[in-house]
Please model this.
Amino acid sequence: MLKAVLFDFDGTIVDTTELIHESMRRATSEVLGRTLSREALLANVGQPLPRQMELLDPERAEDLLESYRLHNEELHEDLIEAFPNVETSLARLREAGLCLAVVTSKRRFSLEMVLDSFPALRDTVDAFVIMEDTTEHKPHPAPLLKGLELLGDVAPYKAAYVGDSPFDVAAAHAAGTLSVAVSWGVFSEEALCEAEPDHLFKDLDSAVEFLLGAAS
Model:
């Protein structure tokens, strides 16, 4: 019986896909002088930005990171979107007695920008785990285990991790939580299926109904 649900943030709770893609596109064009495919730019979303930039070009990673952050802040309000019914769905989970945490690879500054745009999330989520909170990052289990600690040392087998990337699925497996993949974010159903999640959902309502059932 579930006691807690951990959520990824980008692409799971908040629609930041176009914001990330456009920030990546401008940064790589500006720093590397070339245009990469959408697939290449989004291939490592879910890992910390410094790691994503190292994978794009290890010699120019710092320049890419600086450029990305400047463009991301500039474009933030124009490109960030809310997924329908997210706040209502999270409230339903809390009303059912579940503890909720966000476990994200975002740094604190970036998370706070999003929460300023969607302030109700501050009151709906019990705890936030950000990039600075752990030395290891997804797909390593450390961020998820930190989230469970913040929720009162919930046992992994009594928790689920909901995310839209193969890195989220791998982190859930490594942490010993139920892995719930969702296909409304960055990654395709095919890519998520290859990661072998315990469950895969195409829409938020279906995911929430499953989580509520698993908590009862």
Observations:
- The mean pLDDT is 96.
- Strands lie at 4-7, 14-15, 81-82, 99-103, 127-129, 159-163, 178-182, 199-201.
